Predict the structure.
Amino acid sequence: MGLFITLEGPEGCGKSTQMRLLVPFLQQLGHDVVATREPGGTRIGDRVRAILLDPAHTEMLASTEFLLFSAARAQHVGQVIRPHLERGGVVLCDRFADSSLAYQGYGYGRELEALRAISRYATDGLLPDVTLLLDLPVEVGLQRKQGGSGDAWNRMEQKLLDYHDRVRAGYLSMAAAEPQRWVVLDGSQSRDQVQSAIREALLPRLGQSSLTKGGME
């Protein structure tokens, strides 16, 4: 099996930017890399993504939201993630099942064990080998999103500040409970500082001892 790496964090933490920078670094080290995201990653998953993030869908129930994420994830695992891992490649994924626990579980105050059971079914028990949590204060992340030039302000980002605080606390709780998998990084640092910390954290898992190849751009 290859190496499954996920990037997680509250809104505006910079996951997408960091993943884009990480891909060429891993390729320079000789790895066959697939970079993907959730919700999405497949034709079906992208259709589900459009439904989930549409700001007009204000009536969507928390249970509907979680099940849609899980359905897209089942397709993603079966069609993209697991096949590449079985070929010995590296998969980088912008969000995975931990996002659903953080946002729909901790954020909404739902019963976590039921959500974990559904996630295990949707992923056929697949867990990341390493999860990079880009942590930063909620206010900072939301200001970044509102002032950025990326995706339009979506339904998930419009939620109340207290909700996003619970999401962040949920991430930190999961990281503390499973330190062998999670790596918590300071997402408020500069782009290059965060990328350097990510690379240093991944090198031991990639069989590398130092940043001898693929220096910062």
About this structure: The chain has one domain: 3-206. The chain has a mean pLDDT of 91. The longest strand covers residues 3-8.
